[in-house]
Amino acid sequence: MTDDPLTPRDEDDFLAAEYALGLAEGEDLTAARDRLRRDRDFAERVALWQERLVVMTDGIAPVTPGRKAKKELIKRLFPKQRVPLLERLWVWKGFTLAALIALAYFAMPTLRPPLPEAPLQLYATPLRGDVDDLELLAVVDPAKGDVALRRISGGAPSGRVLELWAILPDQAPISLGVLPTEENARVMLPQALRDSVPLLTLAISDEPPGGAPEGSPTGAIRAVGALSAL
Amino acid sequence: MDRDEIEGLIARVALQDRAAFEELYDRVSAKLFGVCLRVLTKRAAAEDAMQDTFVKIWKNADRYQANGLSPMTWLITIARNTSIDRLRARRKGHQDIDTPGLDLAAPGPSPEQFAIAASEAAKLTDCLDALEADRGAAVRGAYLDGQTYAELADRFNVPLNTMRTWLRRGLIALRECMSA
Asked: Which fold has domain B109-180?
């Protein structure tokens, strides 16, 4: 370089501007990123350049994006929650219901054929969460106090176990025990809960081996589902 | 656009408030889309870049407070950087421009510094015009078209080092002019 030497202050300011413009490359970029983390003065310079340069966008007129863009964005960020209720019901009926009925049929052989005088009333729900891909189906037979679970995907994080909880509205979760690592599991519902099955929500948390030490969940709630009549 | 309102929305988005996110979208998406469209020129590409921008906003809103930028600067800078990344994406060895404030451990400028920056900002256009024409055009080319040193050198038919010197002098002069 044959140009006039810059003062260190100007040199720094130039590096900050270069970074803000996206001109920094290779080693310069790595160095700038590193300084940004450690050097408050440099971080300020970058921020001030961003403020200065952004004025170039003042003259850019707003353009309304297509309606589809927002829908796609929301779908992308919130894939599950945003599915319309009707569509969810449809999926539930078309796909999950079949799976639940199959599960009920195989998991509870004593129920077939159902006793004529006691119509078979089962409750079921998928259990899902936002933490990972853990997903189970649960079918409950209130008459027998029987809970059948089938794991669809996911499992316990390493070094942890999965514990099943029954939750009544406004009450503390009641442990139904630690789930085995097998795909299918059977759990007994305590007598006290059998009359309240329609109100029950089932939840799964991860816990230290052996289960939650104090009888209430200590780990993350990884999957939840509220029972409804099948 | 009201600074406090946008800042309030970003703060709520940081708490994963979806209603606030949708409101923020309704408030600023046209401006951000305009910026994406200016950089990328094609509508489909600009819509993709705008979506990516809002995904970054949703995921990084909790770091906004620490980066010291005014809210619209933060949002527009993400849109601009995301668009330019997309523009450059096909080039070999391209390194993404950072989302502003993402890696920032250091607190940003003080409110006083921002007041100064705001008063300086009004002068930017005049100051760019006051630069030697080529240098002003090079700064605009880098910021609005994402042109690299190599591309700028090619465009103005000067050696790479000369281009770096141009920009160095141009940017320092720009700063002096804006703070004068």
From this structure: Arc Repressor Mutant, subunit A (1.10.10)
